[in-house]
Amino acid sequence: MATCTISHDDFVCFLGPKVRNNIKETTRPYKKNAVCDCCGKRRSLQSAHLMTRKRNDIIKECLERSEKVGSEYSIEIDETVHLIEVSHYPISETCAFLCKECHGKYDNEDEETVSKVNHAIYRKNRIKSFVEIKGTKLPTALGNKTSKDYLFLVMGILVQKLSQKDIGLLQDQVFCRKVLGLGHPVLTTDPFKVFDAKGRRRYYNDALGKYFLCMEWKKENFPLLARMLNDYSIKYSN
Question: Which of 10, 139, 150, 175 is buried most, with the most CB atoms less than 10 Å from its CB?
């Protein structure tokens, strides 16, 4: 693994383009067939970091998790770039999707444009009782179900509907810790991870095919899952 000691400014200069390209690729599905979050017109869209989630602020936040060496940071490059990408999720809470004209106005902090974008983002990210992902409705809260029944219902649908990249993120420890607040990946295909070091069962396999599902969820994890379900519904509605 490639490591280096680097300042924030040098990271932005030398690795910023890689981060930008990764986010551009990640946000591509959200823009397909969508309308501008400001003017509402169906045009070619660009992703714009929200004022409250600027790219350089996210980069700095992730660098601060590394070992400090004077005014610089000792990092593993690929791990840090991955953490920065993961820190953008839910994408719908980090980026707006704007036509070129509205993007320019937003970057210039035009008051009316900023107000319209803020309203659109608020409206998109209100958590509803149900979301729809590729034609299937999913509840965003447990309701009367046990956590196990709810998780198997939701994940049973997600493994059928999500892209391989999104399923891969549910198997990624960095994503699951940062975005869902979990200590372990949501899914694994490794049977040796089913039990923890003390022999207690951590993963279950009821009707999920090759995937085992982590059951170490706490009350505070479920609202975070609801936010990702909402994000998926936006991504896969286009």
Answer: 175
